[in-house]
Structures are given as C-alpha cells and as structure tokens.
Amino acid sequence: MSSTPSAKPTETQQEPGPGRLACGALCFGLVCCLSYAGQRLWDAQAAPPMGAVLLQATIPYFWRIATAAVHGLGAASLCVVALSSRRVPADLPERLLSWAPWLVPLAVLPAVLAMLAVP
Amino acid sequence: MSPTLFALLERLHGHVAVLGLAVLVHPLVTLRLRRRVTPGTRLSALLAAVLIAVPTISGWLLYPSYRQQVKPDLVRHAPLVAQAFERKEHLAFMTVALVLSGAVILLAGRTPASQSGVGSGVGSGVGSSGARKTAFWLLAMGLCCGLLTAGLGLWVAAGAAPGW
Predict the structure, then answer these.
(1) Any chain A CB within 8 A of the CB of B98?
(2) Cβ B111–A17 below 8 Å, yes or no?
(3) Where in B18-151 does DSSP place strands (E)?
(4) Is pLDDT above 70 for A25?
(5) pLDDT tens string B91-150
(6) Which of A23, A28, A30, A33 to mutate to test the interface with B (most CBs of B within 10 A)?
(7) Is the Cβ of B87 closer than 8 Å to some Cβ of chain A?
(8) What are the tens digits of pLDDT across the range A32-74?
(9) A2 burial class (0-12, 13-18, 19+ CB within 10 angstroms)?
C-alpha cells in the first residue's frame, strides 16, 4: 500500500520543513535567553565590586554572549535534527509550536525579571 | 576610539535601536490582525531584525571604550546609572535573540508551495497557526525587552552625558 504515491503525500512532506525550522528558531531564542540569564546569575554569586572590573583581562559580557549564542545554536541544531528523524510524527513540530503562547512568556519573563534584579 | 567617534556611534546606536523597535510594531500588528503572513510582514520583520542587530553590533564596538572611559566615573558618581547600564546590556541581548528568532520563523516560512502561486503565494509556509503564533510571541517578548532596554538606555544616556 505504500507503493501508491499520490500528490497529497508529496504536499504533506513539504509542510514539516518550516515547522522544524520554527521549532529550531524557538529553541534558539529561548535557550539564548535562559543561558545568558543563568550565566549572569551564576557569575553574580561571586561578583567582584563593579570598580574592580577593569582589572580583568577578559570582558565577561562578551563571554556570556558568545556562550549563550553557542548554546542557542547547539540547541536549535539538535532540535532540527531530532525533528528530522523519520520516527518523529509529521505533526509533532506543529504540536510543539502550539505551546509557544505560554512557553515563550514562561521562559522569558523570569529571565527578564532576574536580569532586572541582578544587574 | 576617539571621543568624537564614540559620541557619534553612541547616538547612532540609540537612535537606530529605537527605530528598530518602532518597525517591530508592524509585524506584531499584522500577525495579530491578518490571517496570512504577507510579504510586507516578512519585510518589516527582517527590517526590524536588521535595525536591532546593527545597534547591537555597534554597542559591542562601544563597550570596551565605555568600560575604560565612562564606567569608572559612573560607578563612582552614579552607581545607579552604572547598574542601569548593566541591566540594559542584559536585556539588549535577549531582545536581539528573540527578534532574530521570530524573524527567522517568518522568513523561513516561504515554502515552494507558496512560491508557486498556491494560496496567492502568500504565507502558506508560516500559514500554520503554530508557527505564526510562535513568531508573534517571540517578537512580542522581544519588543517588551526592547522597550525596557530603550528606557534604561535613555536613563543611562541622560546620566552619563549631561552635555556640559
């Protein structure tokens, strides 16, 4: 029965592409925010006085950004690869994306509040 | 970096960022009000992402000079402003990450089906409500972070450079 290809399966095979990418982009955005906030909170546990920052050889802000970007890109890549597997149902990306209206604020708002609380 | 170049970049940095936030309102409104993702929505999302990414990069260029020339005095004389600057930097990175993600979703939605004229050639790829909602929420949270960043930036600019 699988040897009777028709036009419809071809169309449905094209759909998951943008869905996978959208999931990857969602992963990137959220992981970047959470990773940055996590790193800052971690650093804040043993933060030197603000005036002593000039004595550091590296700029922690740049390190945090680079690390968060690497985390975000890694998570997005993993997400896209995982969703590309044939074992994954074709509608899974769409189901995952349907969680975005509560997932995005739930992940971002605490990170924003934490960054406002810990400069 | 010379003081003149620093001042020029710093002003451009702020103005372009605010312009990017203003442009970001367009895709948010159209994603909310229209059923389809129009080319105009994609274009404005791309423009907003670029207009927010450019000042971010200029901010990275400014940061080492700020650290050496401006920050010590700020920490000494106006510690609250110095803390506001740090908060602004944190929120700015989140803004960029969220807006870029939302724009990528909108731009990646151009499927072959949408280009071949099916569904008026508009938005079949992002036509899935999940992708559209995801892009909307990422951009909306990006705008929230961006507005906070802009407010803190105004405070810092007023506190760090009184102009006399």
Answers:
(1) yes
(2) yes
(3) none
(4) yes
(5) 999 999 999 999 999 988 765 444 433 333 333 345 577 888 999 999 999 999 999 999
(6) A33
(7) yes
(8) 999 999 999 998 887 666 666 555 667 888 999 999 999 999 9
(9) exposed
Q: Left (φ > 0), alpha (ψ -120 to 50) or beta: where does B120 sit? A: left
Distances (CA, A) of A88 to A12, A21, A28, A79, B4: 14, 15, 20, 12, 57
Q: Which residue has 């791309």 as its token pair?
A: B46
Cα of B83 to nearest chain A Cα, Å: 6
Which of B77, B63, B83, B107 has the alpha carbon at shortest distance from A47? Answer: B83
Tokens 């997400």 map to which residue?
A79
Task: Tell me the pLDDT band of B164, cut-offs 50, 70 and 90.
Answer: low
Check CB contact under 8 Å for A18 and B82.
no
**Each residue of B22-73: pLDDT tens digit?**
999 999 999 999 888 889 999 999 999 999 999 999 999 999 888 888 888 8
Give me the helix-helix angle, A60-84 and A16-44, nearest 10°: 150
In total, the C-beta contacts within 8 angstroms joining chain A to chain B are 142
B111 Cβ under 8 Å from any chain A Cβ: yes
Q: Which amino acid is at B40?
A: G
Q: How far is residue A78's CA from residue A24's CA, in Å, rounded to a whole number?
A: 8
Judge if ipTM > 0.90.
no
Q: Using the beta-carbon criterion (under 8 Å), do B141 and A108 form an inter-chain contact?
A: yes
